[in-house]
Amino acid sequence: MLYDIVIIEDELDLGNVISEYLKLRGFSVLWFKTATEALDYYGANQLDNKLVIVDVQLPDRNGFELAAEMVKINANQPFFFLTAHNEKQDRLRGLKLGAIDYISKPFEIEELVLRIGNIINKFSGKPKMESLPKPDHISIGDISYQKDQLLVLMPEGKEISLTVRESEVLDCLAGNINQVVKKKDILLALWGNDDYFNGKSLEVFISRLRRLFKASERVSIENVYGLGYILKVK
Predict the structure, then answer these.
(1) Taking the model in full, what pTM does it have?
(2) Using CB atoms within 10 A as the burial measure, which of 68, 78, 106, 133 is most buried?
(3) Any residues with CB less than 8 A from the CB of 67 and at least 6 apart, and which?
(4) Are strands 5-8 and 51-55 parallel, antiparallel or unpaired?
(5) Which Gene3D superfamilies does this entry report, sorted A to Z (predicted)?
(6) Residue 80 and residue 67: Cα distance in Å, rounded?
(7) What per-residue string of b and e applies to 54-69 under the rule 16 or more CB within 10 Å gives b?
(8) What is the pLDDT of residues 31-73, one digit of tens each?
């Protein structure tokens, strides 16, 4: 049987909460408590599940090693990490392995569900809007956006790591500086549909980027009520 979601999480309370909540939301879920169990099952069944969620700190092997082994079996398997840490090097290591995203503990279960729904939509085979290649380094006012490294260099010199989805949202806005970008267009380009839950998820990522840009005197993101967003650069 192929599952919507495979979870590898050794914390019993957390794993049970995630598993049961996702089942209530209509997902089929398979939960493993160790890397060994997960890898044995994954390898024996040649699985191609919609999403694998990997805890970075497992009792018998770290999540990075487990994900690397899974990628050897199925290079197209979408996965992301749960982690109690938010270190830049750990994030980059995971992203280089091909992770779609990270979520740091503790987290709101509803945010996790939104991210899962978005990822499954993205990899469900729905057509995506094509776009022209963009440069790896983009100057946005007094901010440098280093797309190839998923980094934003702030005016005071501080480097801030972005998730893949944050980077994608910023791409949409940075390609249309001082112009309205329709919310619907972003949703269709990145999620494949513009339903309510994807809209709420986009609002979360916009809020994160907006907080990030508070350190800038020249860059801001403004809402255009009922239409979309403007990345304003003075």
Answers:
(1) 0.55
(2) 78
(3) 52, 54, 79, 81, 94, 97, 98, 99
(4) parallel
(5) 3.40.50.2300, 6.10.250.690, Winged helix-like DNA-binding domain superfamily/Winged helix DNA-binding domain (1.10.10.10)
(6) 9
(7) bbbebeeeebbebbee
(8) 999 999 999 888 787 666 788 999 998 999 989 999 988 888 8
- Return the residue matching tokens 């779609």: 100
Single-letter code of the amino acid located at 175:
G
- Rounded to the nearest 10 degrees, the angle between the axes of helix 12-24 and helix 109-122 is 60
- DSSP reduced 3-state for 136: coil
Query: Which two structure tokens, joined as six digits, stand for 88?
Result: 């830049």
Tokens 């091909």 belong to residue: 98
Place of tokens 């057509």: 127
Using the structure block, give the residue that is written with the tokens 């938010």.
Answer: 86
Q: Match 């709101």 to its residue by tokens.
A: 108
Token pair of 77 as six digits: 């398997």
Q: Nearest Cα to 38, choosing from 16, 69, 12, 75? A: 69
Question: How large is the greatest C-alpha to C-alpha distance in the chain, in angstroms?
Answer: 57
